């Protein structure tokens, strides 16, 4: 049977608030407090990070620490690619959401000829470029990197030639060409975005299942519709940012937003999504225990992680049983 491999990525170079590098350890503390043996069940690999560069002056105001993020992307991509080539299921536990660009690169490097779909469960759209970003924080850019999307129609910044060099290099990690197409992204409960991002939503008819839609349809139907929208994709990657949760449940994240999922809804949503045989990678990001004295965010996130992992294991077992004996 195919095994799950945990990939720990403690990089937080892309975040605006410090502390996401501690998210994986906060999950482990929540695991211990719950009396779970989760982190003993699976092999794990940690991707080396470059967080120490944050003690130095940032040289790229429109794409902060992009030079070090490029190196981090390459490391993540190589680890994800190796995991998939070993026949394992990569379950990525990462710091800030910029790291997802490295995960996507690794998936596409492994399967260059397969059509990749993405389900992005997140309060934010993360489809800015250095030309449109209001903050320069690269956790708002992973999808734009993966799409090769500059969105020059909405340009507000003039990035330096060095920034553009690294931005173009980021796009080529894993594969020389874009990792996915705009129409193969589905957002769920995204509710905080800027005009350049809305422009892309409208231009490419990108679907966002809003929270009112989730309430009206129910989590199970939304999950099925999201998967159906990606029916032409061969493989699917799911990225779960904990700020998809309502800010009541997600104080321990850098950018909490009101009117989002509760923990039970998030558990059921992720459970339904990963039950699809097309899903080959799941990622959880943006837990920041420095913003959360009680570690409530990590406890909630760990409950979601444990429940989601059980669904992945169940599916992998069914697939192993259904496979013809060679």
UniProtKB/TrEMBL annotation:
Pathway: Nitrogen metabolism; urea cycle; L-ornithine and urea from L-arginine: step 1/1. Its EC number is 3.5.3.1. This is Arginase. One of its GO terms (cellular component) is cytosol. Keywords: Arginine metabolism, Hydrolase, Manganese, Metal-binding. Belongs to the arginase family. The keyword Signal does not apply. It is an enzyme of class 3 (hydrolase). GO terms for biological process: arginine metabolic process. It holds the Pfam family Arginase. The keyword Amino-acid biosynthesis does not apply. PANTHER family: ARGINASE. Its cofactor is Mn(2+). GO terms for molecular function: arginase activity; manganese ion binding. It comes from the Bacteria.
